[in-house]
Amino acid sequence: MPQKILLVDDEPGLVKGLSHSLDREGYDVTPAHDGETGLRLAREHEFDLVILDLMLPGKDGLSVCREIRKSPGIESLPIIMLTAKGEDVDKIVGLEVGADDYLAKPFNTRELIARIKALLRRTQHPRDTQGCILEIDDIVIDPEARTVAIAGRRTPELTAKEFDLLHLMARHPGRVFEREQLLDRVWGMEHYDTRTVDVCVGRVRKKIEEDPSNPTYLLTRWGVGYSFTAKRG
């Protein structure tokens, strides 16, 4: 079965050209030309990934992304956000509301396809998971189901990048990861800036920490990066 992609963008030329390119790659593309339609389709049908433009008529891309992340059953749906301006503030805000990846317009179609393949590969056929459930203190991380539970209770669904970040660090408790190392291991894209990591860490803390402003698991190592710390380790 071809993997299904929801493409939400209001530029007819871009939608037509990108749909054709993705179709040649073997993907099944469903277009939507406004935010309301895109959100409705995401809720009513099963998709493997969403390509979401930031600037949309009516409900904008940020609002659609927020709604998807709050919708049971699709809250972990991979999202690549397209930003017209390419400004850092657009990228950071997109990541803060839950986008897994971003790409500034105009973009190279081959690069977007590479991002799609990488994101789908990590979410549907996760590599580097080692297939074993991690149990550290009262936190349980299941790499096959890609779920996290704390004290027997499931946490809110983590996005693809959030889960990859947490799982990587939890497999190496006490190790301090530099931001550049996390970018390479989790995102695999050299051109990202390190604020991408900071935003992702902040989102993970909101989902696993009792007090995100005073974390006990994901700790900041000032001037270096971050580490996962076991309370009883």
Give an account of the 3D structure.
This protein has 233 residues and is an alpha/beta fold. It folds into two domains: 121 residues, Rossmann fold (3-Layer(aba) Sandwich); 95 residues, Winged helix-like DNA-binding domain superfamily/Winged helix DNA-binding domain (Arc Repressor Mutant, subunit A). It is 39% helix and 21% strand. The chain contains eight helices and twelve strands. The strands form three sheets. It has a five-stranded parallel β-sheet, with helices on both faces. The protein has a four-stranded antiparallel β-sheet with strand order 6-7-8-9, covered by helices on one side. Strands 10-12-11 form a three-stranded antiparallel β-sheet. Helix 2 runs parallel beside helix 3. The longest helix is centred in the middle third of the chain and has 16 residues. The termini are far apart.
Taking pLDDT < 50 over at least 5 consecutive residues as the criterion, the unreliable ranges are none
Which overall shape is indicated by the principal axes computed on the Cα atoms?
A: globular
Number of strands: 12
Strand order of the largest sheet: 2-1-3-4-5
Mean pLDDT: 88
- The CATH architecture term of the largest domain is 3-Layer(aba) Sandwich
Can you tell me the number of structural domains?
A: 2
CATH H level, superfamily name of the largest domain? Response regulator
Helical fraction equals 25-40%
Looking at this protein, list some descriptive labels:
233 residues, alpha/beta, Rossmann fold, Arc Repressor Mutant, subunit A, 2 domains, five-stranded parallel sheet, four-stranded antiparallel sheet, 8 helices, globular
